């Protein structure tokens, strides 16, 4: 039985696709082993959203070859889609696949030779969402379900439309069946994912929307907990806010990318809203859904970001009811408009601004967690740590540690928050 290791960088969609490749391999008699263990085949599912993820992808390819010099190395994902010829020069690489080719991994492995084989199609021609089939997930408690792929937004800094193609959605029937399959296999939480999740359904005939899909899942109560991935501020209608406010299964958690809080930078980014519009959306959510975890993305050092623009954005973030944010130092991506924009911010200034934003995020997260001291949360128990403590996740996305019987993994339990740490809370069981 051949051993395969898979390592994944980047977004939840990439994680879903890695799980799909793993499931297809297992069905063909392969055995999945942890990355770094001895393996006959190593799959690196890359990301190219920043120069840092490019570098990490290259590092993992070299590591795979050092650890398993005779293994077949497969490079796939967004970096492979963008720059396939680059990986021909890497020792040990036998197969380079684009994102669309992930569904054909088993067959392509049979073609792998010592001379690298490149199988990368023109993803801009893709018109159908055809995600890998997936019935289980290694975590056994939470599952990601890809319902959309691609993006039509063309933000000026972003390479993703080049490597993921146009926005395309699976049918509502297939999406709901995917949820039912995971529920039947015992998963307590399903996370809906996509490259541009808020555009779900708009390309279908007849058109549909993410709200329509989620509302149907809520009516049927398909899974105990349904969570949404990242969604744009312009794609959160009042109907979705009301659904969140009254939901039994839809979790009170949204990740809403901002990217900049300055109204001169937002148009340069090709972001179709103002800071005031973003404020209106998040404040409406915070009022309608008490306790909701609201996260965001922010780019530090976008071209033209003066000290004044940065301070505007910093104060704006301070004033918002956000629980935390991911900070990305600006990374020019070749082929995007932002890569050649004037007003490039020096690297040391970008680093300082990113650090200030991360510190602000840490402060806001701590304050958000402290709101729940002494209060009860419903927590899904995920896994046991080495010290015997169980890790869990609340419906509103608070990581929890709790002394509890390991037999209760995949149970949802009621806990009381007793201590707030940097990135999680300590709890005691109530039920």
Task: Describe this protein's structure.
It is a single chain. With 431 residues, the protein is α/β, with parallel strands linked by helices. It is built from 12 helices and 19 strands. The longest helix has 24 residues, at 347-370. The chain is globular, with a radius of gyration of 22 Å.
Top-tier CATH class of the largest domain = Alpha Beta
Q: Which strand order does the major sheet show?
A: 2-1-3-4-5-6
Q: Determine the number of helices (DSSP H or I, runs of at least 4 residues).
A: 12
What is the helix fraction of residues, given as a range?
A: 25-40%
Shape: globular
Named at the architecture level, the CATH assignment of the largest domain is Alpha-Beta Horseshoe
Terminal Cα span = 44 Å
Structural class: alpha/beta
- CATH topology-level name of the largest domain: pyruvate-formate lyase- activating enzyme
Number of strands: 19
* Main pleated-sheet profile: 6 strands, parallel
Strand content: 15-25%
List low-pLDDT spans.
none
Radius of gyration of CA atoms, rounded to a whole number: 22 Å
Q: Whole-number average pLDDT? A: 93
Number of domains: 3
- CATH superfamily descriptor of the largest domain: tm_1862 like domain
Quick structural overview:
By secondary structure, this protein is of the alpha/beta class. The chain has helices spanning 12-27, 51-67, 78-82, 105-109, 160-164, 172-184, 210-220, 238-246, 265-268, 275-288, 307-319, 347-370; strands at 3-8, 31-33, 41-46, 72-77, 93-97, 117-119, 142-146, 148-149, 168-169, 189-193, 225-228, 253-255, 293-300, 324-329, 376-384, 390-394, 399-402, 412-420, 425-429. The protein contains 12 helices and 19 strands.
